[in-house]
Design brief:
Helix content: 40-55%
Number of helices: 6
Strand order of the largest sheet: 2-1-3-5-4
Length: 144
């Protein structure tokens, strides 16, 4: 799978760690930036990630900022994206299973590296269950 990553300056180190980790899991990583820790605006990178996922350049995305909140809001402005902010593996798995989330968000200042890796692994391993969840997921992309 191709997995796109984007962050703000507060999460550059966690992004680098997760980009490397996803490679060890046999997936291709697309790093959408930023490359350094100079201050940037998380919406710019959230929108960039959302466009990549919506365009099919990546099957999934990982959005990171200090808290995970701001960048997840930015990603969710794209109707084709369902971004879930998580802090532990069960929520990451449920985001896929019940909500067909295609973007995982985490807060670099709130989660450690090992827990972030576990969340990413749980997210990627969990399939969407469909069935009773499908109608609800369909409603998430409607604007009315």
């Amino acid at each position: 799978m191709r997995i796109a990553f984007a962050s703000d300056h507060a999460a550059v180190a966690l992004k680098a760690l997760l980009v490397e980790h996803v490679g060890t899991l046999g997936h291709a990583a697309i790093d959408l930036g930023p490359d350094g820790d100079a201050r940037v605006d998380y919406p710019d990178y959230g929108y960039k990630l959302a466009r990549a996922v919506a365009a099919g350049e990546a099957e999934f995305g990982v959005a990171l900022c200090g808290s995970g909140i701001g960048i997840s809001i930015a990603v969710n402005r794209e109707p084709a994206c369902r971004c879930a902010l998580v802090s532990e593996p069960l929520s990451a798995a449920l985001a896929r299973q019940h909500n067909d989330a295609n973007v995982l968000a985490m807060g670099a200042r709130l989660i450690g590296p090992d827990l972030a890796k576990a969340c990413l692994e749980a997210f990627l391993a969990a399939p969407f269950e469909g069935g009773r969840h499908q109608n609800r997921v369909d409603k998430l992309s409607r604007k009315d």
